[in-house]
Design brief:
This protein is about 35% helix and about 20% strand. The protein has a three-stranded antiparallel sheet, covered by helices on one side. Strand 1 and strand 2 form a beta hairpin. Helix 1 packs across helix 2. It is globular, with a radius of gyration of 15 Å.
Length: about 110
């Protein structure tokens, strides 16, 4: 079993904390994914982008990770990030108030 915890801070330059993170143990495999997303530089919708990307990566992990064989971890994480990117891009494209939103993402998979 792995133990994880997280903490975020708004920092010195911003008024809004645009960080999101998740730690999730897969119910079948027992493997853990750790995700940290940070909305980009105060851009419109940074909080929505980081939380949405985090949620998408969690969902992909829950729904598709059981089919990930040994040696396929990098491809799996790339696929999860592509799905998250697609979600953020489409949301920004369809909601004018979120135009230009974006986030960084870092993932770690513990097997």
């Amino acid at each position: 079993m792995i133990q994880v915890w997280g903490m975020t801070d708004v920092g010195l330059c911003r008024k809004e904390n645009q960080d999101a993170y998740a730690f999730l143990e897969h119910p079948v495999t027992g493997h853990t994914i750790c995700v940290v997303c940070d909305g980009m530089g105060g851009a419109k919708g940074g909080r929505e982008a980081s939380q949405g990307a985090c949620n998408v990566i969690e969902n992909v992990f829950q729904e598709q990770y059981a089919q990930c064989g040994a040696g396929q971890e990098e491809a799996f994480l790339k696929k999860a990030l592509i799905y998250a990117n697609r979600f953020v891009f489409q949301k920004a494209s369809h909601e004018e108030s979120l135009a230009g939103m974006g986030t960084t993402a870092v993932c770690a998979l513990v097997r």
